[in-house]
């Protein structure tokens, strides 16, 4: 299996590049943010539990997120591999993912971090905020998301670096050029 973690701050292009990667490599895309938003829309118990946290730009507690992620993987036993988008976001999530994958004789193949400046992230999300209704795209809430990223989520990078699995690529510029750079990394592992 090819199991990729697509890593990066809010607005880095994780969702955009995931769409291209799933087409190219026939992988299953798991975006924890997308799954949470679907639960919120359907007003499930989980959706009710996380809706305020997400609207405020705060991370959902690890236990809730890990359980949801594992369920999603289990529901797709036929997958050729996964793209984890927006997960793991904390070291306990990364450890839980490693342990869970080991339990099904799998592992993370590579972690690719999209490098984008804060100015560019802010510009992209402000643009998106004009046309979509993600409440956490509001400028104040985005500030909180960026703060969560730079205080908690970046700590995941040394975790994977220590495993020799981390690649960083430039996430600014033409979407297809960034995708080509991603493919160069992934093609090292494709069998
Ligand atoms: P999540 O949904 O993961 O949001 P995020 O990480 O803040 O990132 P986005 O989805 O906004 O951005 P993206 O990197 O996917 O970029 P995109 O391709 O959309 O998480 C939302 C919330 O859920 C979290 O805040 C938290 O509350 C909760 N959550 C989720 N996972 C969790 C976890 N593991 N633990 C705890 N809580 C969790 O691109 C952004 C915009 O830029 C788009 O408009 C796009 O068209 C544009 N764009 C993309 N690429 C380019 C480019 N190269 N040039 C110009 N524009 C571009
Ligand atoms: Mg996204």
Characterize the structure shown.
- The structure is a single chain.
- By secondary structure, the protein is an alpha/beta fold.
- The protein is 55% helix and 14% strand.
- It has a single domain (2-181), classed as Rossmann fold (3-Layer(aba) Sandwich), CATH 3.40.50.
- It has a five-stranded parallel beta sheet with strand order 2-3-1-4-5, with helices on both faces.
- The radius of gyration is 16 Å and the shape is globular.
- Bound molecules: BIS(adenosine)-5'-pentaphosphate (AP5) and magnesium ion.
- BIS(adenosine)-5'-pentaphosphate binds next to helix 1, helix 2, helix 3, helix 6 and helix 9.
Low-pLDDT residue intervals, each spanning 5 or more residues: none
Which of globular, elongated, flat, extended, rod-shaped describes the shape? globular
- Report strand %: 5-15%
Helix content: 55-70%
The DSSP helix count reads 9
- Report the CATH superfamily: P-loop containing nucleotide triphosphate hydrolases
**Extended strand count:** 5
Just give the CATH class: Alpha Beta
Strand order of the largest sheet: 2-3-1-4-5
CATH T-level fold name: Rossmann fold
How far apart, in Å, are the first and last alpha carbons?
Answer: 9 Å
Element string (H = helix, E = strand): EHEHHHEHEHHHEH
What's the domain count? 1
What topology does this entry show?
Elements: E1 2-7, H1 14-25, E2 28-31, H2 32-42, H3 45-55, H4 62-74, E3 81-85, H5 91-103, E4 110-115, H6 118-131, H7 139-151, H8 156-162, E5 166-170, H9 175-186
Parallel strand pairs: 1-3, 1-4, 2-3, 4-5
Helix pairs in contact: 1-9, 2-3, 4-5
Magnesium ion (MG) binds at residues 14-15, 31, 33, 86.
